[in-house]
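re: ur question from earlier - yeah i can do the single chain one, its not a big deal. heres the input i used so u can compare w yours
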Amino acid sequence: MHYPITVFGVKDTTRLFVQYLNENVCHVDLVVTISNKLTEGATISSYGSMDDLKAFNTEIYETTAYTLDDETTKTFFSNNTFGIGISMGWSRLIPEYVLECFNPGVFGLHGSCGYLPYGQGRATLNWSLIRGDWRYVMHLFKLDKYADSPNIYAKEMFEVNEFDDIRTMQFKDLIVSKRLVSRLLRDYTEGRPITTTYADKDMQEWYKGRKPEDGRISFLMKTREIYNLVRAVTRPFPGAFAFTGDKLKVMIWAAQPFDRIIDFSDSRPGEVLDVLDKSLLLRTIDGSLLVTEHECDRLIVKGDILC
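and the output i got, formated as tokens:
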């Protein structure tokens, strides 16, 4: 069978993206995603089922290997033909044998505060918040065997502001991704040449992947650093956390800088200064932080010390 347009993705934003394309741009023939079994015991943030896309007559192929290297998946790609591919919410390298099945290629989306090759790597939306970046440059580029090669078709940027968390970053990502891919698919379906430019003017900088345990808060961090971490890994990601003195885990889902001037020097960083309308006021190195949403197996009270 021939699939003119294929999307690779596993996230709920992938589903929203493909729905948009089907309704506004062109028909997506195939979505390659992962089997539900692969999510068992694994942390795949923002995972989403693609079943709703069947209403658009979009075929769903669920691989049993996120790396696409199992024999069943290899057989699927060898027994069918493909046009253009889009990687949207697929957090793994797509192997060369798959890329070679597509003409004019598979195109992916990747961004950071700079221009590729700056910002190659993993978890770039999260890192943009953690590092306090003020902009995010989204690149639509042609995939090859290397990660995030700067074979640029087009790029667009959006603002990262003090009110963003990881979910609003995903929404902004989705908006500019729709624009970039719509342009690409219109070129493709209308027979215009698809050209890329190899961009290598910026320095190379790699962002490391992140694990759930990387959400641990240290109260040696300044208020702004803690705030950036909390908003970078909040839902639908695993979340930021600390521990009470009796070793209970406290998930911190939302927080905001509270005050930099009030003198709390008679308390220690991480100490609960007060409980205000169920929000926890914590001392920090350089001020205080108001935790507006948290979870713990017991009630957190004034005087508790988080670490």
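Helices lie at 12-24, 71-79, 96-99, 124-130, 166-189, 223-233. not sure if urs matches, ping me
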